[in-house]
Specification:
The chain has a four-stranded antiparallel sheet. The relative contact order is 0.17. The protein contains nine helices and four strands. The chain is α+β, with helices and mostly antiparallel strands and 219 residues long.
């Protein structure tokens, strides 16, 4: 029984990792498939993945942004920030329809597991049980969480240059036009992108050092 009761208009930290801590994103194709799922499964209706495939067949050079403009969308959740790492992911989501988070997470978990298992000729669960969730109950927490998620790849030591393309980081501080996130909630509290970049870099460096110190203590 899930303890968190998701409320419309509230934000939540959503995360999960591969079963037995295994890698669930093995190559660029896996990451892009998951990002596509984040875009197309976030909707009241089903079938957008198939609609996109048909659209792409008729328009080989089309991008997802072209399809987005043509389709009538009724999202289940609103993305604030996200990061996809080799063996886990983090989202900050705002629920905008009843049971939106649960419905979206069920759709994306089932879809990606089926895709991954078929690709890799395996069966069974891919993720470690039900997704985990924490209510974001203050603006201070939301800002901190945005730094933690946007720089999560760096914090875990997977990437050191700050250009991890499978997160919302470049939407926030770069020129990435993917447009999955509502950035105004965060960026509206800073003078400009440069100030926000300073904020997340400072917090991420602290969190990375803290994580490394904890590892040494455990050893």
């Amino acid at each position: 029984m899930r303890k968190t009761e998701f409320a419309n208009g509230e934000c939540y930290h959503i995360f999960n990792r591969g079963v037995d801590k295994r890698k669930v994103f093995l190559n660029a194709g896996n990451y892009h498939r998951f990002l596509l799922s984040m875009e197309l499964l976030n909707d009241e209706k089903d079938g957008l993945m198939e609609e996109w495939r048909n659209f792409k067949k008729s328009n080989p050079k089309a991008r997802i942004s072209d399809f987005r403009e043509l389709s009538s969308r009724k999202p289940l959740v609103e993305f604030i920030v996200y990061c996809i790492n080799p063996n886990h992911y983090h989202f900050a989501l705002k629920q905008i329809t009843d049971r939106g988070i649960e419905r979206f997470m069920h759709k994306i978990g089932t879809s990606y597991t089926n895709y991954f298992n078929k690709k890799n000729k395996r069966s069974g669960s891919l993720f470690q049980g039900n997704f985990k969730s924490v209510h974001v109950d203050s603006n201070e927490y939301l800002l901190y969480l945005s730094a933690y998620i946007n720089k999560n790849n760096f914090i875990h030591g997977y990437n050191s240059n700050g250009n991890w393309e499978y997160s919302s980081l470049l939407e926030y501080i770069g020129s990435e036009k993917r447009g999955l996130c509502n950035k105004d909630i965060i960026l509206g509290q800073f003078k400009n992108k440069i100030e926000y970049k300073k904020f997340i870099n400072k917090n991420a460096s602290y969190l990375k050092k803290k994580k490394e110190d904890e590892r040494y203590l455990l050893e």
